[in-house]
Design a protein that fits this description.
Length: about 280
């Protein structure tokens, strides 16, 4: 199990906005059953990786590592000359595979027939610095090409994809409201981190069971709902149910206090990624 540390995503000057969902079709499902997300073509992943590894982005990554992920909009006790020197010494390089990052889809939560469990929001490439720091470069397809829109500390996106690939494959996706990572494999939603274990148990649940679970959690809080219209999209308290679909355990206290980011259900609001702090 990968350790979680508290690291805030630093929004860089590479983009003015985030949350541009990839225009990828969901796989059709017979009989309206939940579907697996559509894969991203290898050629698209290659193009996204090229954008992430461009000289301009690598230069920006050097400054990112020099500042230890602190955004340029915040002050840092580091002289400009020292920052420039540290940026050059960072020598950032891409490592591992470039992967699509899937996020729980609002249509799936709503129970729309044939909706995929998640949709591709962006593509991530892991970068490592000479001193061992790591970062995730997010790219989206925009105006006919791939554009870097964010740099975040750490490498959850690619690390969990590698973890899933090493244990049987499948489609990795995230439930952002809980910061839980799962893999969809052979019709079951299996946990990849502690937050996901708290959500679906160590053995996971069927895809249909997971749909019932997330509908119970968020079905009345989707965009356009009374909850959304009341301006409560910043968070809510989950009442622990007496029983869950598909034999799920009751929600834990940690899950019950999780905030629902309503914008995350619509493919926007990706400017800050939260990491959990151990202990």
């Amino acid at each position: 199990m990968r350790r979680h540390t508290h690291r805030l995503a630093a929004v860089t000057a590479l983009a003015a906005t985030l949350g541009l969902a990839l225009a990828l079709p969901a796989q059709a499902a017979e009989g309206g059953a939940p579907a697996a997300p559509a894969p991203v073509a290898p050629a698209e992943l290659s193009a996204a990786r090229s954008a992430a590894g461009s000289p301009a982005v690598l230069e920006q990554l050097g400054r990112f590592f020099a500042r230890k992920g602190v955004p340029p909009t915040k002050s840092l006790n580091l002289a400009p000359a020292d920052e420039a020197r540290a940026a050059a010494q960072a020598a950032p390089r891409l490592t591992g595979d470039t992967v699509p990052v899937y996020t729980l889809d609002a249509a799936f939560v709503a129970g729309t027939a044939g909706a995929a469990v998640a949709k591709a929001e962006f593509v991530a490439s892991k970068v490592v610095a000479a001193d061992g720091q790591t970062a995730s470069v997010w790219t989206v397809r925009q105006d006919g090409g791939w554009r870097v829109v964010n740099i975040a500390t750490g490498g959850d996106e690619t690390d969990y994809a590698a973890q899933a690939a090493g244990t049987g494959g499948g489609t990795v996706f995230r439930e952002p409201q809980l910061n839980a990572w799962y893999v969809l494999r052979d019709g079951r939603v299996l946990p990849l981190d502690e937050d996901a274990v708290g959500s679906v148990g160590s053995a996971g649940v069927s895809l249909a069971g997971y749909q019932q679970l997330v509908h119970q959690r968020y079905g009345d809080k989707l965009p356009g709902s009374a909850y959304d219209r009341a301006g409560k999209g910043g968070g809510y308290e989950v009442a622990a149910p007496a029983a869950e679909a598909d034999g799920l355990p009751p929600l834990t206290a940690g899950v019950a206090g999780a905030a629902l980011l309503a914008t995350a259900m619509t493919g926007v609001g990706l400017a800050v990624r939260r990491r959990r702090q151990d202990g």
